[in-house]
Each structure stands twice: as C-alpha cells, then as structure tokens.
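hey m, so remember when u said the tokens were messed up on ur end? i reran from scratch. heres the input so u can diff it against urs
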Amino acid sequence: MRLIRVVILALLTGIAPVHAQDGGPGGGFGGSGPGPGGNLGFGAPSGAMPRLEIPGAATPPPLSLPPIQSQPDGGAGTLPQIQMPSPLPQIELPGITGYAAPSIGVPLAMPGAGSLTLSARLTGDGAEIERGMVWRVFRPEPGPDGKLPLIATAQGGTSNFQLDPGSYLVHATFGRAGATKRITIGPNAREEQFVLDAGGLKLDAVISGGGGIPSDKLRFSVYEGAGDAAGERALIVPNVSPKAVVRLNSGTYHVVSTYGNVNAVIRSDIRVEAGQLTEATVEHKAAEITMKLVREAGGEAIADTSWAILTDSGDIVRESVGAFASMVLAEGDYVAVARNRERLYQREFRVVAGRNSDVEVIADENGGDRIDASGGG
C-alpha cells in the first residue's frame, strides 16, 4: 500500500511542471494558468486562434505579393499615368458674312437650273435702264386661287434669275410703264431684253396771269386717254404731286388738275412720247376766297356760323361751319348764304381769276331772313 502511494506521488511530481507551462490561474482554452481546458493540447499563444495540425497534409507555400511602392509624399501607390495622344490641330473657319434671306419656297440655287438675265430699255436704240426696274417671274398656269404663282422678283436694273427649265411669264415695270413676255428656259444661259416704249410725264399748274400755286393745294390724276362705252376712263395714277415725273408707256392720257377741293378743275389730254420727258403746265382760272359774317363792314367775324356757297344757277358747291370759310373757287358768280342764331344772311359776289379776296356778309337784323321752327326760310 505504501509503495502505491510513493508511485502516485512520483507521477504527480513529474507532471507538475507541465501544468505550470501550459496553464495558469484561471486559464481557458490555451491559457497560461490552470483552469478548465488549460491542458487541451492546442498549444496556441494567448489571444490567437490555435493552428490545427493535420498529419500528412502538404503545407502550401506562403502567398507573396509585390510590395506597394510608396510615393515621395508617403501615400499609397497610384495608377500608372496614361499617355494621351497629342491634341488635334486647330481649324480656322471663315467668318459668316451677311446675306439676304430668300423668299419662302424659292431656293437660291436649283440643280439643273438655267440662267436668265433680264434688261430693259425705253426705246430700241436707247441706253439700258440702270435703276427703277421691277421684275416679276410667274408660272403661266393659274394656282388654286386662280392667280398666277409668283416665282421670283428683283429690283434695280439688269437682273439675273436661276430657274428650272420650263415656260414662264416675265413682267417688267418701270414706274407705270410695263411689258410682259413669255420666256422658255432651257439648260443653257439666256439673255432677254425688254423695250418698254415708254417716256416720262412731268406736270405743273399756274394761276391765270402766271402766279404760282402752293404745292399742298395742287394735285393731278392721270387717266387712260380713251373711255369705255359709258365714257368712263380708267384711273392710272392718282394724287400726283406737281413737278413729279410719272413713267408711262407712250400714248395719249387724260390729265385732271385740281386746285383746292371745290370746283377749280382743269382737264386736258397730253401725249407721252417714248424715250422723252413730256412737261405740261396747265392754267387755273380760280382764286382763294375767305368769307366771314360781320355786324358791320370791317368788323370781327361772328362765330357759330354755317355757310353754303351756291352758283348763280342755285347749285350748292360748298358747305362749311365756322367763323371763317376759306376755299378755292373757279372764276364766276356765286351767292354766299350765312346762318347764325336762327337767321339767314346772304350776299352775291364774283370770283376773278388770280385775285384772292375776303367776302364780308353783313348781319343786318332788319334784313336777315328768320328761320321758322320747321327749318324753312
């Protein structure tokens, strides 16, 4: 019995150092002191996962990565620089110049178009007209609205058009003078000259005796020379100012000159020659008359007066309202009738050509005609 105890004590004495190395106070799995599991045999250092040894397994070589090259600033490595190609050469573009916008639906150039150059003269042997021309190119077939479609226009003197091959109507105007031609365009360039057979007309007027007429009181109207079945003439140019040049085809025209806006009217027929400027001056037998109603000769004009001017045959030629009634009247005899405060006053007077004058109507209370309630005299 004593021998058994000695053997057990010897065994315990030999194991004690192992416990001191593998365990520790409070040791756990692989701890440094005695405790539960302190001698499980993992042999792993404190705080690390123990390595499991598998008998007969080949140990793989450690994985090695190339070191990261540090930069001069101590930072991590960066991606290698990418070499970009050299920049594109700079392209010089010409500047954009101004241009005239084309008409809608009319291209500036058309494939296969033919060139048409147009010019005009007043007479066959005259010089080309350099300015003042208006050119219009139409298709010969009417459109849905019944009118000829306008293809192109130009102004000035000689003009050039680029047109598709085909037939066109070309209308040329120079003032009120004009001509129209049908022209066929092919693939080749074509030149066409218009002879307008036209001239100019310059109009003016004076008062009988050679006196001048203020331009703001003088107007002309030009009509065709021949009238229709009813004797009516077509108006060609209205409201022509004195000394203005009107361009017309050669021929005879009926000209109406109006001085003022009452009855001082002169009518005449004038012939226009091609290639020439025809100057015509008419003479008016008329005068400016100013009428006023006064209580005595040389007195002040009475306001709120209505006027009626009658010819010697009783036809009314002018009516107005105001203290003064000024107008241009043709030479002849007239009657002035003034109405003021329900009374009528009248006076006969005569207009002498070129002699402007004032006409006074005396408001004689004893001689004036009273107007009754119905408006009669």
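this time it looks ok to me. The first helix runs from residue 2 to 22. if urs says something different then somethings off w ur setup not the seq
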